Structure to design on (844 residues):
């Protein structure tokens, strides 16, 4: 907090010292405990319900140039091997805890991958697991979540709690559908989505920044308001004139030449729609802007200690307005995914509360764009699991598989993330003296 | 609305709780007093403004209005009478559906809409109290949906599978549902108290977990699924577990509304008259100060979530045993878990405010359906008007600026 508002660092040179605003926490035993519980859980599943047979992992699609062969693994040995990996990682985490060191992020990430793979290999015994399809689909489904989470991070870093993410997504989807239907091209729709998101943010700013209304109230109510307006317009205007107003032109998949042909990674990351490529750019730009530019330093200063920022001459409320307008535009872009990529028309309440998931990703990611993006990807994976499981069938009731990601998130939030600290002035309106 | 009063009363339990330290008035005090003191007028204007915006939307999407707008300069009277017809039609239909139907002859049918309003208001009040109680302790409970789903499912399970006399069966079903709701919500409280996990994430995640748990129960015979059915739906409740109608068979109003009233009284007593309520408000105002005053903040969070979950759970019970007793379904919450947030906000997290807000939103709900049936206006307009009311009421200065009223006091 103090490093952020160092007056000298608002000068010409971007201050690398003022990094993530992370809290220095004491080493807690929560991480090893959670990892241990998860490992034991996996081992118990394998012990109590052993399966015989093979699991096939499909590592390429039919259309790929380089065809990796399908990988057929004996189910139980593979699952046990991965359990052992999980146990080893847990051991390492315990060792680090005893040595009073924190468990690093990479260890947790590897653990997560190993655990999830082990579980899926077991669950999909005798079936083929379309790895590429699963991951590519997860990325696609995570698009609105990531955009929404970026919008949330930007807003909250400037001290404005953005609960209206859902409204921004929904209004973006609505505007994108209407504009791209009228123009017959997805690009104007994308622009309209950004404008629509910014519009919701403008209302948020008007009430929260200029009129000091509680930001949670404004955010929640704006979500309801946007649901009301879009559903009303949908029934009254869009549905009767569906051909002219609600038949959006969709983005097509554009493979990136060379990159798209890399085995495994190519089809997942580089054979997507332009919206996904825009997402990569957005994540990079937001991260760079927030941590490496003068603008970002000011945004963070305004979010941490507005009075200090004001003292050194930063216009607090103007900075906040600007930031949440950008944040709204970013979130609005995510809304475009629904009507320009997913399905070619708008439907009432079509975001299905995704904005609240994005909000969870913001907090899960500790108000950091990269971590929030990863959290959003996890939730995308969760929602994509549904389709994959219904196709491959599995030996666990599908409802439990579908609930798993959310349970894991609770574990993760309780054990790995712990006390998350929002920007100090988050949600506090600033009244210049 | 009675914040000023409650703050004055606060010091009495304070002596016991915090070793005689008087509570800080806090920043919210003067602000709230300012709002409470003379803003009733602005509140009325806020409603007027919201209704006005709703009217514009109704008129702008009305076919006749758009037709006549084409020659508005040639014959403005056509245009304005079309606008009037559309708007007047909409709001009278809303009123007829929510309060009093003057189009029918016998008295019982005339006041039937009012009882429908009360029926719709009951779960909104219950869940609103739960969310509002959370707000008072500084907890944002978005998990209303999950708490309602599981509480409703548990009450439904008892209601379907047990054979008991009504005097035992009904209370048992209500109790089981309430307890399940309480414990489900308490998960978030415990995790926040013990590990610092943010309640917003946990309650959102628990919504999904609850949904899939219910989905599982509804697709498994022996748990909740009706035998021989492929749909995720249970059998109807046994007669002895259904909340009885309180005004006779001609009305749908059931005991749930009285439960809601009792809950309001309980919540009022809890917040304003009990030591626990004092601790809740202290934690909500400033957890650090509360901690140094000797209040166990974590335990207060857990208790609050237990009570909040019980209240929200009662809303789910009310749906399953009262409003829709023909079987547990996946959408038994009917969006009330989220509506409750708006209700709590409009009621400023105060029990009596929530009662009023719940009644208002219940009226909108009852009236909205009849408006849709009679005038063909989508029920969603109600959402727009509701949310605008909350927004405008929260920002009296904006309303003043719009109506060019003088500012209340120079700062």
């Amino acid at each position: 907090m103090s490093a952020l508002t160092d007056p000298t660092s608002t000068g010409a040179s971007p201050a690398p010292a003022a990094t993530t605003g992370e809290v220095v926490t004491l080493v807690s035993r929560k991480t090893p405990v959670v990892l241990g519980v998860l490992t034991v859980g996996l081992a118990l599943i394998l012990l109590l319900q052993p399966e015989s047979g093979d699991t096939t992992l499909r590592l390429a699609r039919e259309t790929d140039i380089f065809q990796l062969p399908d990988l057929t693994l004996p189910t139980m040995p593979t699952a046990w091997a991965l359990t052992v990996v999980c146990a080893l990682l847990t051991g390492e985490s315990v060792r680090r805890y005893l040595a009073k060191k924190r468990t690093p992020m990479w260890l947790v990430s590897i653990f997560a991958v190993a655990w999830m793979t082990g579980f899926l290999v077991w669950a999909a015994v005798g079936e083929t697991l379309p790895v590429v399809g699963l991951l590519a689909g997860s990325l696609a489904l995570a698009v609105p979540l990531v955009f929404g989470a970026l919008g949330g991070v930007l807003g909250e870093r400037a001290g404005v709690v953005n609960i209206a993410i859902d409204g921004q997504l929904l209004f973006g989807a609505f505007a994108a559908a209407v504009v791209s239907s009228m123009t017959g091209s997805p690009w104007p729709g994308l622009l309209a989505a950004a404008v629509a998101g910014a519009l919701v943010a403008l209302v948020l700013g008007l009430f929260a920044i200029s009129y000091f209304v509680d930001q949670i109230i404004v955010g929640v109510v704006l979500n309801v308001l946007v649901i009301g307006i879009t559903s009303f317009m949908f029934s009254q205007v869009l549905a009767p004139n569906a051909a002219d107003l609600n038949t959006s032109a969709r983005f097509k998949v554009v493979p990136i030449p060379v990159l798209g042909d890399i085995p495994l990674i190519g089809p997942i990351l580089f054979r997507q729609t332009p919206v996904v490529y825009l997402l990569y750019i957005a994540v990079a730009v937001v991260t760079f802007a927030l941590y490496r530019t003068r603008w970002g330093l000011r945004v963070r200063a305004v979010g941490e200690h507005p009075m200090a920022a004001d003292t050194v001459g930063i216009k607090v409320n103007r900075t906040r307005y600007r930031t949440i307008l950008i944040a709204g535009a970013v979130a609005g872009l995510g809304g475009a995914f629904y009507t320009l990529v997913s399905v070619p028309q708008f439907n009432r309440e079509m975001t299905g509360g995704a904005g609240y998931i994005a909000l969870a990703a913001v907090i899960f990611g500790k108000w950091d764009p990269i971590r929030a993006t990863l959290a959003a990807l996890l939730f995308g994976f969760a929602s994509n699991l549904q389709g994959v499981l219904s196709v491959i069938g599995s030996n666990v009731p599908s409802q439990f598989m579908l609930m798993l990601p959310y349970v894991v998130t609770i574990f993760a939030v309780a054990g790995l993330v712990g006390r998350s600290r929002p920007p100090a002035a988050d949600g506090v309106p600033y009244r210049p003296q | 609305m009675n914040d000023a009063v409650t703050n004055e009363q606060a010091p009495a339990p304070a002596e016991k709780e915090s070793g005689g330290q008087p509570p800080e008035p806090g920043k919210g005090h003067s602000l709230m007093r300012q709002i409470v003191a003379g803003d009733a007028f602005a509140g009325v204007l806020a409603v007027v403004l919201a209704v006005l915006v709703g009217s514009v939307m109704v008129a702008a999407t009305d076919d006749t209005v758009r037709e006549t707008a084409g020659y508005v300069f040639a014959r403005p009277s056509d245009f304005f009478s079309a606008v009037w017809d559309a708007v007047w039609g909409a709001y009278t239909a809303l009123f007829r559906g929510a309060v009093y139907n003057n189009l029918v002859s016998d008295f019982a049918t005339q006041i039937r809409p009012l009882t429908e309003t009360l029926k719709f208001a009951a779960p909104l009040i219950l869940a609103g109290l739960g969310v509002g109680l959370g707000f008072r302790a500084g907890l944002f409970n978005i998990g209303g949906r999950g708490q309602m789903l599981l509480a409703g499912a548990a009450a439904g399970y008892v209601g379907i599978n047990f054979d008991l006399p009504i005097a035992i069966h009904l209370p048992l079903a209500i109790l089981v549902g309430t307890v399940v709701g309480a414990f489900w919500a308490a998960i978030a409280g415990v995790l926040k108290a013990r590990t610092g996990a943010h309640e917003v994430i946990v309650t959102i995640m628990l919504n999904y977990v609850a949904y899939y748990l219910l989905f599982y129960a509804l697709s498994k015979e022996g748990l909740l699924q009706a035998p021989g059915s492929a749909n995720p739906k249970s059998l109807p409740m046994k007669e002895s577990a259904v909340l009885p109608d309180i005004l006779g068979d001609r009305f749908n109003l059931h005991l749930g509304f009285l439960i809601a009233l009792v809950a309001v009284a309980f919540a009022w007593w809890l917040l304003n008259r009990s030591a626990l309520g004092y601790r809740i408000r202290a934690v909500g105002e400033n957890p650090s100060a509360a901690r140094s005053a000797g209040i166990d903040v974590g335990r207060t969070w857990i208790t609050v979530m237990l009570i909040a979950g019980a209240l929200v759970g009662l809303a789910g019970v009310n749906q399953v045993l009262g409003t829709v007793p023909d079987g547990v379904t996946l959408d038994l919450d009917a969006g009330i878990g989220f509506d409750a947030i708006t209700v709590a906000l409009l009621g400023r997290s105060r029990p009596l405010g929530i009662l009023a807000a719940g009644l208002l939103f219940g009226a909108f709900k009852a009236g909205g359906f009849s408006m849709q049936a009679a005038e063909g206006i989508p029920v969603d307009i109600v959402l727009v008007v509701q949310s605008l009311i909350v927004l405008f009421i929260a920002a009296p200065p904006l309303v003043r600026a719009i109506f060019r009223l003088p500012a209340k006091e120079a700062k």
User: Anything to note?
Assistant: The CA atoms of residues 257 and 283 of chain B lie 31 Å apart. Chain B touches chain A at residues 57, 61, 140, 142, 191, 194-198, 200-202, 204-206, 208-209, 212-213, 215-216, 219-220, 338, 341-342, 345, 377-378, 380-388, 390-391, 394-395, 397-398 (CB under 8 Å). Confidence is low (pLDDT under 50) at residues 1-28, 31-38 of chain B.
